Amino acid sequence: xxxxxxxxxxxxxxxxxxxxxxxxxxxxxxxxxxxxxxxxxxxxxxxxxxxxxxxxxxxxxxxxxxxxxxxxxxxxxxxxxxxxxxxxxxxxxxxxxxxxxxxxxxxxxxxxxxxxxxxxxxxxxxxxxxxxxxxxxxxxxxxxxxxxxxxxxxxxxxxxxxxxxxxxxxxxxxxxxxxxxxxxxxxxxxxxxxxxxxxxxxxxxxxxxxxxxxxxxxxxxxxxxxxxxxxxxxxxxxxxxxxxxxxxxxxxxxxxxxxxxxxxxxxxxxxxxxxxxxxxxxxxxxxxxxxxxxxxxxxxxxxxxxxxx
Length: 309
Known about the structure:
Blueprint: E1 8-15, H1 18-28, E2 32-39, E3 42-51, E4 60-65, E5 78-86, H2 91-100, E6 106-110, E7 113-119, E8 125-130, E9 152-159, H3 163-173, E10 177-182, E11 185-189, E12 197-201, E13 214-222, H4 225-237, E14 246-247, E15 252-257, E16 263-268, H5 296-302
Parallel strand pairs: 1-4, 5-8, 9-12, 13-16
Antiparallel strand pairs: 1-13, 2-3, 3-4, 5-9, 6-7, 7-8, 10-11, 11-12, 14-15, 15-16
């Protein structure tokens, strides 16, 4: 069964203090907080979702923030670098903006593209690239106009313990197209307008250790739950071991561990973030799954208050 994902759905990472996390992604990078909820597996912890104005697949950066969380180590078995994409001719704006917030920026080249590389306050490795493809975000905040705003994901750089097997997964199982090799990187592309470039770093990195400043998993898109069920079978037939379908309220998820050590997810595009909040109110209220509503008072007493303004 030939299948191809449209590209990345979301990336989920671990952070430290939730207020620091929120301030950086909403006030410095200008992303919209599209959902404030909890880690369904650990309801005493926030799960914060950032994206464009609607939280469209391909724009969704999510975090499990724990105040005082031990710092992790970025390395093999993880997404090493998360890439955001901005409109063409805006890299100088972003370089100046990051420097205004005392964020150290370095420049890198890959596949004839220039990247601004930096870290968030908890050590997560990020980069910004400018490309024409992909729709502009319509969200404006903190001095960032629509013509400058982060569109969503440009892609990701994978640090894998088995580069050839990870490459085979991307091309032969997930349906991405090989875009060649440059020095220590392989590049693959999908047909989506955002989250459509995945690079594999071929040289070895130390083994990653989970903690603040590291990516927990990377998710790719399924059209709907029927497509997701096809993906589940396709993955099993390809020698992987996908989980049962998990209901995450705003999408459903299937997880599997690939041979290079990374945790992958297949997530559905629907139902999206307006299923329980209006577009205007996205992210402003603590939303809980139905089965946790009975515990709302206790959960709210545990969670650290955060200022969303």
